[in-house]
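2024-03-11 09:14:02 INFO receiving multi-entity request
2024-03-11 09:14:02 INFO entity count = two
2024-03-11 09:14:03 INFO echoing inputs for audit
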Amino acid sequence: MAHRSGVSKSTVSRVINAEPGVRAEVAERVRGVIDQLGYVPNSAARQLVTRRNNAIAVVASQPQNRLFIDPFFDSHLRGIRKELVHHGAQPVLLFLEEPEEYPRVGDFLGGGHVDGALLFSLRADDPLPGMIERLGLPTVFGGRPLVREGERVRERVYVDADNRGGAREAVRHLVALGRRHIATITGPYDQEASAVDRLDGYRDVLLDDATPDLIERADYTRKGGADAMAALLDRRPDLDAVFVASDLMASGALQVLRERGRRVPEDVAVVGFDDLAPIAETTDPPLTTVHQDIEGMGRLMARLLFSRTGEPGEGRAAAVAEHPLSSVVTPTRLVLRASA
Amino acid sequence: MAHRSGVSKSTVSRVINAEPGVRAEVAERVRGVIDQLGYVPNSAARQLVTRRNNAIAVVASQPQNRLFIDPFFDSHLRGIRKELVHHGAQPVLLFLEEPEEYPRVGDFLGGGHVDGALLFSLRADDPLPGMIERLGLPTVFGGRPLVREGERVRERVYVDADNRGGAREAVRHLVALGRRHIATITGPYDQEASAVDRLDGYRDVLLDDATPDLIERADYTRKGGADAMAALLDRRPDLDAVFVASDLMASGALQVLRERGRRVPEDVAVVGFDDLAPIAETTDPPLTTVHQDIEGMGRLMARLLFSRTGEPGEGRAAAVAEHPLSSVVTPTRLVLRASA
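2024-03-11 09:21:47 INFO inference complete, emitting structure
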C-alpha cells in the first residue's frame, strides 16, 4: 500500500493508527488508497508496526481438574484478571495437560498474539519455562519454579508467599501449645518448591525432633491428606499435633481423625496452610491455618509483568529501563480458629 | 518489502511461507531484501496473507466462580480441548464477568488472533453474541441462546442437549411411580433456554396438574435449590415428588428434605438433571437423574466450528461449501439410582 500511495510505510501506519504528524493532504491520499484496496486496518497489520496486542497469556501446565477444583487457582486468576483489566490488557488463558499440547502452545505464544505471559508451572520436569524463555517472551511465574540440580537457567521472576516463614509460625504455635509429637503432612516436595519450603519451615523449628516417621508425603489433594493422616496414625499413635501443608489436605486429615475417634484439638491439634475461606471456615472444627493473600499475589504478578512489557499504551523500552525487575515474596500470617 | 525487492506482494508471501511457484533467482532476491531489512517472518505477517492462526477462542460470559465450581463447564471444556488439540488447534480461553471487560474481548476477537469462537453465553441480555456476529467471526454456541422477543438475529448455531425430552422422561418416571403431587424446582427461565425447556418438559407431562404453587424458580446453584425446596415444602406439605432442573440444585434440595425429616424416596421422590458424576453419585441417597453427554457436546461444538472455519491446514472456502452448518440437539436418558 505504501507503494501505491507513494508515501513511506511509517506514514501509512501513522494514518492507520490515527497518529499525528501527517499532513492532511497526504493522509487523504493514503485513505483513498485504503478505500480503493478494500483494506481493513486489522490488528495483525497494526501489530507489525506497534508490536503490541494489549493481551497477556495466563498459562497453566497442570491437570485441568486440579485447576478447577482447587480454589487456589480461582483466587489467583481473580487477582490477575482484576489487575490486567484495570490496565486495559486482555487475559488469555491457555491450559496444558498432555505432552502433545506443548508445541501448539509454543506456536501461539511465539506467534505475536500476546505481549507477555504469567506462568503457573510447578513441576520441576516441566519443559514449558524453558520453551517460553527461548521465545524471549516476558514472563512472571506464579510460585517459585523448582530448578533441577545442575540445570542452568536465566533468573526467573516469580511471586510467591513466604512458605518457609509461614510453616515456621505454624509449628511454633503447636510447640507453644505444649504439643510433644508434632507430625507433618507435606506436599510433593520432589516437584513443587512450596512443598520443599513448607517442610523446611517445619524442620527449622523442630530440628532433631523432626524424625522421618513423623513426616508423610502427600500430593496437595484431599484424598492424599486423608491417606497420609491414616499412615501417620498407624505409625505414630502417640502423635498429638500435625502441621498439614495445605487446607485441602487438612480437610481430608480431619475426616480421618474423626473416623479414628481422635478429638481435634484436644487429642490432636491441626494447623493447615493457605487459608482458603471455602475450606478453612467450613471444616469441623474450623481450621487454624497460615494465611496467604492469593488474590493479591495474582495482582502482583500482573504488575511485575507490566514493569517488563510496559503498560498498554506506553513504550516498552522506557518501561524496562525505569523498573528493574525482581521476584517478590509476600508475607504470611497465622489465623487462629478452633483446630489448634 | 515488495517495493524494495521489485516483485509482487504475493511472491513475497510465497517466499516467506516457503510455498512453491517462485523462481529460485527471485526467491533469492526476496530473501536478500528480508535479510537487509532484518525482517522476521512472524505470524502477524504470515497472518496477513493466510488469515489462519490455528487458534480457537472459548469465550464464557459468566461469573468465574460459577464456571470453576460447576462441574458442567469443566466437562464441556475437557471435550472441547480434546477435539481442538486432536485437530491441531490451540484453545484460547477468555472469561468475561464485568461490563468493562467487553470492549477489550471484542478487540482481541476482532484482532485476527483466532479463527473462530466457541461461546458460552446464556443470559438473554448478554451483548456478547451480537458483538461477535458483527465481527463476522465463525461461532458455535454451547447451549441454545435465548433470544428476546422481537429481537432479530442471524441464525445462531448451537449444540445443546434435549432438555425438554429429558425433563419429560424424568416426570413420566415420577408419574409411573404413582406420585400424585409432583413439584419442580426450575432454573432461571427468564435468562437461560435450558431452564425454559426443562420447565416445558415438566408441563408437557403434567398438563393441568402443573399448578403454579408446585413450581419454584431458582438459579442453578446448590443454595438456590435448598431455598426453593424449603419454599415448596412450606406451601405444599403434601408434595410427594420433585423434579429438580439440575444436580447441583438437587443436592441442596436433598439436604433440606433430610433436615425436615422427609425420607427420600419413601416420602418424597427426587429426580435431578445433568448426571454430573461427582454430585449425583455422592448425594445421600444417590440421585436418579437425566444424563447428558456434556464432554461429547463439547467435542461436537469444536467439530461444528471446524466445518465453518475449515480444519487447520485446509482452505476455508472449500470447507464452508462442503459442510452446511446446522445446530445439533443431543439425546438424554434417565439414569436410575436410589432417589426415585
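2024-03-11 09:21:48 INFO post-check: The first helix of chain B runs from residue 2 to 5.
2024-03-11 09:21:48 INFO post-check: The longest strand of chain B covers residues 55-60.
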